[in-house]
Amino acid sequence: MNKMNKMNKEQKIVICGAGGFIGSALVNTFREKGFTQLVAVDKKPMTRWYQRFPDVENLVLDLEAPDACNRALQGADVCYNLAADMGGMGFIELNKALCMLSVLINTNLLQSCRKFGVGRFFYASSACVYAGYKQLETENPGLKESDAYPADPEDGYGWEKLFSERMCRHFDEDFGVDTRVARFHNVYGPDGTFDGGREKAPAAICRKVIEAKLSGCHEIEIWGDGEQTRSFMYIDDCIEGIGRFMDGDVADAMNLGSDEMVTINQLVDMVEEIAGLKLKRNYKLDAPKGVRGRSSDNTMIKEKLGWAPSITLKEGLEKTYAWIYDQMTAHGSSKDAVVNIS
Ligand code: GKE
Hints:
two-stranded parallel ribbon, alpha/beta, 13 strands
């Protein structure tokens, strides 16, 4: 059973970052479960929302401002904060100050939660909080929650996420704001960004393979040497996990990620197999690479929530590749992609 069924369908639920990939998927899941008091908030103009639904209250607000957070959260029962300026390594390595400004969003949302007595607050943290010295080898045994300390997170983005985790904890302890914090490990799937610079590896590789297939130029540029390792979590596992975090009673930050670790070369192998071709690989060693090895240790989420992400990378890539292929052949790029209005 999807855990969101346990929540009261008349509650006023506010999803911040609702114009984005994960946020819009979360709004749609609540709609499909019959929730009727939904408020979707994003800074982007609605024409740029990944998915937008007419039966939801849609607000364009810049949540870096306290007044905007008060406007969004007045009367709210539950708040999900998925609002942040972020992207793959191609973005966060080159926009560290912008990524850190997201701290204003979470801080002001927590203040509004305290002001209005919002019942529960979800914060989307990230595997980028983990210490760099724990991610130096490709053979990563899986990052445990304790590997965030002594702190050495990703520059910019990772520090903002770790700081905001701690602010959630202290608002919980000192002010009684009931918080839940999930450390997302590289989420991908249909409706995600696949070009324009903010895309992450799964979507980027799918796009590059499709470009090679459509152009007949059977080569692909891969950032780094391709031996770096990651795990990638399919969007449906992410959404299910968010529901389980919110229905659970664990306030401490926990992993929400797949423990299926692959090299980027293996990721490319899988996408080539889906596309039915093999490409010449050109390795761009000076491109943004992030950490050498990362995967999620799911011991704690299994122990605390009795569940862990399980959708295989192959299964998720097949759906993601198909969606991106449709977007590229129908619209040319994600910039032209039609906003799904159901
Ligand atoms: N984006 C991208 N595009 N990455 C590529 C490409 C490409 O064309 N080719 C190879 N890679 C490599 C990157 O160099 C990196 O080593 C690996 O794939 C994953 O890159 P990524 O998906 O952009 O981002 P990371 O997993 O390194 O970091 C992301 O982690 C998330 C949490 O797991 C962050 O950028 C955030 O999106 C987030 O914190």
